[in-house]
Specification:
Elements (H helix, E strand, L loop, with lengths): L1 E4 L2 E3 L6 H10 L9 E9 L9 E3 L2 E4 L2 H10 L3 H7 L5 E10 L9 E8 L6 H16 L4 E9 L4 E8 L9 E9 L9 E2 L2
Antiparallel strand pairs: 1-5, 1-6, 2-4, 3-4, 3-5, 3-10, 6-8, 6-11, 7-9, 7-10, 8-9
Length: about 190
């Protein structure tokens, strides 16, 4: 599993209805994308759920790197690049992915939380702790999915979770889910990924 996200921070007075309409019109384009586990079309609105910004920030869990590369180099990614400019695309290696107790229910919010990998400890312990945290999150009421990923360049772990209700039982930045494309969600590996 490979994770990816880009975030486009928009002006404070930006009409987020434009993003909603765009996702409504184009979101289905990845509903059958080969190699894609899931794409969560995420937004934050200034003043909603504590967000200081307006932002479009889709999050991806890829089953294959080839599927990701086809998206980036020869696919729909050119559309947002043309409309908003080329964003930084962050990528992480998968540590764990767990189906939540509310799997199968529509996801209405997502939570992203980052944490540094502590200095001085065993990497195996830090990664196992992140995988265990994903399993605990997936067991919470309303959890649709939980994943943990790591960037070994910056030594940062990202905890990502999807929730079936607007009051998630996870800490972090809260995003509204406008659409979920999940063509190969069932084929993403579950549990620890090493």
């Amino acid at each position: 599993m490979h994770a990816m996200q880009y975030a486009m921070t928009l002006p404070a007075d930006y009409d987020m209805g434009i993003v909603r309409a765009r996702v409504s019109r184009l979101g289905h384009a990845l509903d059958d994308w080969e190699g894609l586990g899931l794409k969560a079309y995420l937004i934050r609105e200034r003043g909603v759920d504590g967000s200081p910004v307006n932002q479009y920030a889709p999050f991806y869990l890829w089953r294959t790197v080839e599927g990701m590369n086809r998206f980036l180099w020869g696919g729909p990614f050119q559309g947002p690049v043309d409309d908003f400019g080329r964003p930084v695309v962050r990528q992480w290696t998968g540590l764990a992915c767990e189906e939540g107790v509310a799997a199968g229910f529509p996801a209405v919010v997502a939570v992203l939380r980052t944490q540094p990998v502590p200095d001085g400890g065993a990497l195996s312990e830090a990664m196992a702790d992140a995988a265990d945290a994903a399993a605990r999150t997936a067991a919470e009421d309303g959890a649709v999915l939980a994943a943990a990923v790591v960037d070994s360049r910056s030594w940062e772990i990202v905890h990502f979770s999807l929730w079936s209700h607007p009051e998630p039982k996870a800490e972090g930045e809260v995003f509204q889910v406008l659409h979920l494309s999940a063509p190969e969600l069932g084929r993403l590996p579950r549990g620890r990924q090493w």
